[in-house]
Amino acid sequence: MKIKNFIAGVITVIVFAIPAYAEFVFLKDGSIVEGKIVSDAAGSITIRDKESRVKTLQRGSIMRVLYTSLKLGKIYIQKRDGEGIVAFMVDEDRDSYTFRKDLYKPEEFVIERSDVLFIAEKNPSGLKGVAETDRVSLTWLPPYDAVKHYNVYYSTGKSEKYKLAGSSWGKSYTLSNLASNKTYYIIVTSVDSDNYESSPSNELKIATKNIPPDAPDVISMKNTLLGEKEFKWEESSDPDGKIVQYRLYGILNKKREIISEVNKTAYISKKELNYDRVAVTAVDNGGDESVYSDFYRKALTLSVNPIAVLPFGEMKELFNYGYGASMNLSALGYFIDGSLISIDSGYIRWSGNNENINNMNMIPTLFSAGYSFYMTNNISLTALLGAGAVYMSTSYINAAYEAEKKSTFEPVCKAGLYMKYDFNDSIVIFAGGSFFSIYEPSRLKNFIGTELSIGYKIY
Questions:
Q1: Which of 86, 268, 320, 416 stands 20 to 30 A from 187 (CA)?
Q2: Model-level pTM?
Q3: How far apart are CA 209 and CA 449, in angstroms?
Q4: Cα dist. 55→16, 30, 32, 39, 50 in Å?
């Protein structure tokens, strides 16, 4: 008898010394306590539940204690005889399963393992997601049993409670209006025709994408008194982080290389930079990079253009030749690389080609757009299309042999091709020609203009 008491005492010491982990304690009134057993006596056990509350449970009130993990969700049981049952599994052993129809009522029934064809969980599974900056597109696998709809829940931290984001009648859902560069935890449950909500799917941990920083605004690119090249730009901003550095790139034949990485808004190069263009980007703390801000392409070019014009088609019957000049303001690369927009206005004087026409004064004004192809570091070819209006004042001899003048405004369009040479950072030289067409109600007046001009870049 003393030996038995000694053995019982040793066992009690071992139980008290080693913390036991009880996943679930089933009570005879149907309730279930989940937690960790902190003491185990002959007449009672003490358990710390999930809310860290300590409870003492009398042995007489306990139906069973499970020391293994248990999902407290409904499952679908397909028996070999064709019967399908939806119930809660509360225990199992080598030979049988124990189920409850109502999880929190003590009534149970047992099915032999040999009578079960398969068991399927009623919760969704395989939850996956694809994240953007402000949304996550979710997909999942359905449970075996029929589903009325799914509920999607999310939280922003492991310690936070899940919030209902919405419901879906299909196997996908887009969780929108999310913050960028943030981690979310997402689960999905299913709801059946009895409005029973299943246990959750696997938990998906996913982070929305980072928004790249804003591109720096270029201030200037100029040569210093020491012959160095100085680049300046405005401080950039980032919508969901902070700027950690700026990168200067040299771009040559569509290939780029890093010139320098700096944490200030200026850079001075002491060596010659032989690139088609130089650009700067901002980099944020997430490692994302802004789009380029191009130093070369942000320049405005102001040019004065001597013009020689020759009539074409029906216009040749009226006029012999013309000459004049125009002023042009153009912007390269303000929309996409190589894009060009310009406005030009000028004066052309035409000489008459018959005894009835003395001369004509013409003032064309056109808006143009085109694209520049760089063939070398300094030489580019530009194709342009333009449209606008032209003022024409013609001096002629009327039927009474009296001198008269006729003035009119007409629409005009042009197509041009120009070669440009970047002499240095400030001076450019243009050479090329354009075909002009003036629309009059009765006919078109066409002529060709050639230009050789010099321009100055304004940064």
A1: 86
A2: 0.51
A3: 53
A4: 16, 17, 12, 10, 11
